[in-house]
Model the fold of this input.
Amino acid sequence: MANAVSPPQARSVAGAISLRGVGKVYDPDGLATVAVDDWTLEIANGEFVVVVGPSGCGKTTLLNGIAGFDPITRGEIVLDGETIASPSRSKRPGSDRIVVFQNGSLFPWKTVVDNVAYGPVVQRRMSRGQALQEARTLLERVGLGDVADAYPRKLSSGVQRRVEMMRALINDPKVLLLDEPFRALDAIARSVMHDELLKLYDATKKTVFFITHDLDEAIFLADRVVVSTSRPARVKRVLPIDLPRPRTHLIIASPEFLALKRQIADAVHEEAEKAFRLGEPELA
Done:
């Protein structure tokens, strides 16, 4: 990873997201479980926003609504002025919003380069030869050229995560949606991946919507941290992270970082206690 070179340069410059009174009710004709309620937030082009909150509060439900994987039952989600989700619209995923999931999603029967080339072939209708060439170029630029012909099972978890990032970025999405992508990594690998992600972010300035339980991770990565309430998810608090970029792991020990962590920890702990007292089940 130390050999990583220039990340891919962004071609798109858009990616403003507007969440306007978003709500999601599961089984509206039965148990009517409210997962998200009146979630309102404006995310600027190229902003890195991280959402934290108790387990089961509805963070992933919200991300799935933005991705178009799950319909919403109230409000609307707007991307660059276009409504992409509302109660009157059927769910609609799009290549302008790419998700990197908690669990690895690489095809184990495909090599690294074939995994990265898959999106351009399927979503951009590129010829396989052209897609493979573009994928190899991208992998070389980010220091992964030496594993291009390897299969995922031969790679460490951290390298697999990097490959998944490249598979997302090769399609030049407006928005990256990351659902606790480093949760399964050990602390050292996770720290390295934070550095790698910030290199990509600083180079591409994609809009990033990232959800996590890890407060250090949230503060280290974000422009703003949004604290969610316990279920149903609402915006409890929004904290700007006024730490200079580019960032290194040394900033985690700074007084400014620790002061932010205390504020966020207090807000999250309050909501976690509410969820615990109510015996909330862990939903998405």
